[in-house]
Amino acid sequence: MSLQQEEKVETAALGKVGANQRNRWWARSRWAPVVLAAAVLVLVVVVWQIAYAARFASRLVLPSPGNTVASLGRGLFGGEWWPHIQVTLIETLAAFAIGLVAALVIGSLFAFLPLVRKTFYPYVIAIQTFPKIAIAPLLVTWLGYGLAPKIAIGALLAFFPIFTNTVAGFTEVDKDELDLMRSLRAGWRKQLRYLLVPNAVTYIFPALNVAAVNALLGVIVGEFVGAQEGLGYIIQQKAFLGDIAGVFAVLIILAAIGLGLFFIVKFVESRFTKFSR
Amino acid sequence: MEKGVYLRGVSKKFVTRQQETVDALSAVDLAVEPGEFISLLGPSGCGKSTLLKIVAGLLPPSGGSAWLDGHEIVEPSDSVSFVFQKPTLLRWRSIQDNVLLPLDVAGSRPKEAVEYAKELLALVKLSDFANAYPSELSGGMQQRAAIARSLVSHPDVLLMDEPFGALDEFTRETLNEEFIELWQREPKTVLFVTHSIAESVFMSDRIAVMGARPGRIIDEITVPFPRPRGAELRKSKEFFDLVARIRETFDLASESSAREVVAP
User: Fold this and answer.
1) Do the beta carbons of residue A178 and residue A195 sit within 8 Å?
2) What is the ipTM of this complex?
3) How far does the CA of residue A190 sit from the closest CA of chain B (Å)?
4) Which sequence spans correspond to the domains of chain A?
5) Which residues form the ABC transmembrane type-1 domain (chain A) (predicted)?
6) A186/B104 Cβ within 8 A
């Protein structure tokens, strides 16, 4: 956040306080959002514990928070899960990378070659609207039980958001901005460098979050369908054995991985784009 | 050194999707002398923006020719700058980097050019916002930055396409006054498109009044008020009289074109 934005936010907050002449702590404190968010977490855990203690649901399907944390601890510190976390991470990163590169290349071809766009557009729409995870079993049959089918389905899911925004970023360029470049006598390369690529980047970054999460989703589905390793495999094993606390514990790890991916992408984005859209 | 712009029988036809031919401009003759400030004044659809784009070298004329000093205009020129109705600042560049864009596109940022950019930012009162991004600025501030950008390459001719048209009237009047002050420090030949009669009278040396269908110049009016012009001019009787006279011109033009439609 730039200095000016901070000033803007601060004056906005001050304005509100001044308007109703009350020093509401949650309007002033920087920590208020953190405290409030933490309060929600505490509330959820408390309700969960009450539900468990009062047997709102059978203990076979709802573990206690304590058991879940214990299971999480055993899995992590016992070292049993680390290889699986590693496999899922590698698959996800590979899927994301392949989806990203393919989307940038094919998206650029679509944007700059009208013939390619006209020829393949109906098929792209067809694939885009198709529920892609439905082909996971087929991919496992074709590519075997290793990493390949998981990476393939993850890459396919990561591809589309980036692809769509790449095409949009190169084609939805303000007409006046193009005229500006022409009036500055910018040739094709300079238009690309100073207008089209930066414009596309502003479209592509917001898609990367979705793509990263999609990659993880595809990988987990792939692991459900057929795998001997990975977190999706662990979830299925635990559910099959009735270890519901274990399932919950793996879900927490997946949530952490998803959040981690989200924040890494956000961080990279903030390095590249200091302006606000 | 300022340069003159000369139009000889410039016309422009567009073909619509229904394959109809529309005469956007019909045989426009106009001479803009070096250092002169001329407004193209007219209702929307009279082709004034089209005319400006032809002068900018962004659109080829269908007939006639446009000249910049002794050279026929066939492509954008180094010595001409364009100011759009929208600020058209690149949102990923800071204000200072936006002002420096013409230099980046030209290939380098010489030290004195960067100094000049800073000077221009000070002249348009944006020194404190050099490192801000366009989205952090108001519409008037963005348009000031766009004007600074148009001046950074030391153009001889400035083409302005309703640059203050999107602003509220108070901001517009302030920017009018600021721009005239700036123009007197940095003299340029200016071709200024507007649909505001008052704005054209306040700003220009001469007004080319345009009519629509087909777009053409229906009158040329010399504005007699001495410079420097201040805000008081807007309240003077002479100012109102000239505004009224130009309004009359439009009324006559629309009456005569109504008669043309009625006549068999």
Assistant:
1) yes
2) 0.90
3) 7
4) 3-62, 68-276
5) 89-263
6) no
